[in-house]
Amino acid sequence: QVQLVESGGGLVQPGGSLRLACAASGFTFRDYAIGWFRQAPGKEREGVLCISSSGVTSYYIDSVKGRFSVSRDNAKNTVYLRMDSLKPEDTAVYYCAARLYGCFRNRETYNRWGQGNQVTVSS
């Protein structure tokens, strides 16, 4: 069974940090790019960043550059999204998604999705 399961979200104060994990099963993880998307209330789901099967990162939102980073551990079939210096505008449901090989901004090209994980940045 193909699955992506996210963990690690929660409530954090502005300026704080969180690390989300996306654990995969049921497919050849090392061949897939993993993208992170987020959806704030009343807004469209948007791409945040992506890590390709070869480990190259692509950023899709300028405001997260220098604050968010992504890594993958193919031995554990897991991708990690590290979020530092969090701001209230980062509040959203965060999703990981998989597509074969390379990254792409368009969410419709991703065919495997996690269930989403709430991140709330508030004092």
Looking at how many chains there are and whether they match, the oligomeric state comes to single chain
Beta strand %: over 45%
Main sheet specs: 7 strands, mixed
Please work out how many helical segments DSSP would assign.
0
Instruction: Please write the string of helix (H) and strand (E) elements.
Output: EEEEEEEEEEE
How would you characterize this protein structure?
- With about 120 residues, the protein is mainly β.
- Helix content is about 0%, strand content about 50%.
- Strands 2, 4, 5, 6, 9, 10 and 11 form a seven-stranded mixed sheet that branches.
- The chain is globular, with a radius of gyration of 13 Å.
What's a quick, concise take on this entry?
This protein is mainly beta and 123 residues long.
Main attributes of the structure:
7-stranded mixed β-sheet, 50% strand, 123 residues, mainly beta, globular
Topology:
Layout: E1 3-7, E2 10-12, E3 18-25, E4 32-39, E5 46-51, E6 57-59, E7 68-73, E8 78-83, E9 92-100, E10 112-113, E11 117-121
Parallel strand pairs: 2-11
Antiparallel strand pairs: 1-3, 3-8, 4-5, 4-9, 5-6, 7-8, 9-10, 9-11
